């Protein structure tokens, strides 16, 4: 059962638990529509490492398998929920804190939740994991890894070029740090495997661990 995981600064609020997980398990036994417990698949890596591309392909594949899946994408979220945030360290912390919370909600709703965010700081990713684990929810970190030379070469949005020219400040890998995961569940080197292979690696992992059947 999900519980409040952080100290709320607002006073006079009390967490109101429900019996969602029990209902999901019952529904699952009857072959009902909520036939999954939910999991957050957290993709992290440099800009242009392939997070969005892999998340899109994975979402499509999971939907073909008739799994309830939803993708939260870094750029997309900045058009709405996080449009008030910039790219300084504090804003990046808040960006990821919010996505940690939102992905927890989706996963609590029995969704296979795919997040595609640079999420450059280890502490922020650790917080996202903690938010899930404290709520008894599954969380898998996937390092979408490609060397800086490769992502700069790809540069699908021309951002590295602009960052090198000094037109974009605090750009991850150029003028802002990226702290690679030390112990991710999965490490996908996108300079060495194509998108299809990346989707296969993640799907095989989900099958092997029993997150999907
Ligand atoms: N193996 C791969 N996996 C994912 N993307 C790849 C791969 N090889 C080349 N690419 C290309 O790299 C770019 C990655 O861009 P994108 O998915 O937007 O990255 P991110 O979301 O990490 O910023 C795309 O143009 C994609 O076609
Ligand atoms: Mg992206």
From TrEMBL:
Described purpose of this protein according to its UniProt entry: Catalyzes the synthesis of activated sulfate.
Domain APS kinase: 37-189
One of the protein's GO biological processes: cysteine biosynthetic process
PANTHER family: BIFUNCTIONAL 3'-PHOSPHOADENOSINE 5'-PHOSPHOSULFATE SYNTHASE (PTHR11055), PAPS SYNTHETASE, ISOFORM D (PTHR11055:SF1)
Documented EC number(s): 2.7.1.25
Catalysed reactions listed for this entry: adenosine 5'-phosphosulfate + ATP = 3'-phosphoadenylyl sulfate + ADP + H(+)
Superkingdom field: Eukaryota
Pathway given in the UniProt record: Sulfur metabolism; hydrogen sulfide biosynthesis; sulfite from sulfate: step 2/3
GO molecular function: adenylylsulfate kinase activity; ATP binding
Lineage: Eukaryota, Fungi, Dikarya, Basidiomycota, Agaricomycotina
HAMAP family linked to this entry: Adenylyl_sulf_kinase
Keyword field contains Nucleotide-binding: yes
UniProt keyword Transferase, yes or no: yes
Protein name as it appears in the record: Adenylyl-sulfate kinase
InterPro entries recorded: APS (IPR002891), APS_kinase_dom (IPR059117), P-loop_NTPase (IPR027417)
EC top class, as a word: transferase
Family under the similarity heading: Belongs to the APS kinase family.
């Amino acid at each position: 059962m999900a519980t409040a995981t952080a100290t709320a600064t607002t006073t006079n609020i009390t967490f109101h638990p429900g019996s969602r997980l029990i209902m999901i398990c019952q529904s699952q036994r009857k072959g009902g529509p909520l036939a999954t417990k939910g999991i957050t698949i957290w993709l992290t890596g440099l800009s242009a490492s392939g997070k969005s591309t892999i998340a899109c392909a994975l979402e499509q594949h999971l939907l073909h398998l008739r799994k309830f899946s939803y993708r939260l994408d870094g750029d997309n979220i900045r058009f709405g929920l996080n449009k008030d945030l910039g790219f300084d360290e504090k804003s990046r912390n808040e960006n990821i804190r919010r996505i940690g919370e939102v992905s927890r909600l989706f996963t609590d709703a029995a969704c296979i939740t795919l997040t595609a965010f640079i999420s450059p700081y280890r502490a922020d990713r650790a917080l996202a994991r903690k938010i899930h684990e404290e709520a008894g929810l599954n969380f898998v970190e996937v390092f979408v890894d490609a060397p800086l030379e490769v992502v700069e070469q790809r540069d699908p949005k021309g951002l590295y070029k602009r960052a090198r020219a000094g037109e974009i400040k605090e750009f991850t890998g150029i003028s802002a740090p990226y702290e690679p995961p030390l112990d991710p569940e999965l490490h996908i080197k996108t300079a060495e495997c194509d998108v299809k292979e990346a989707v296969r690696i993640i799907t095989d992992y989900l099958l092997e661990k029993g997150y999907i059947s």
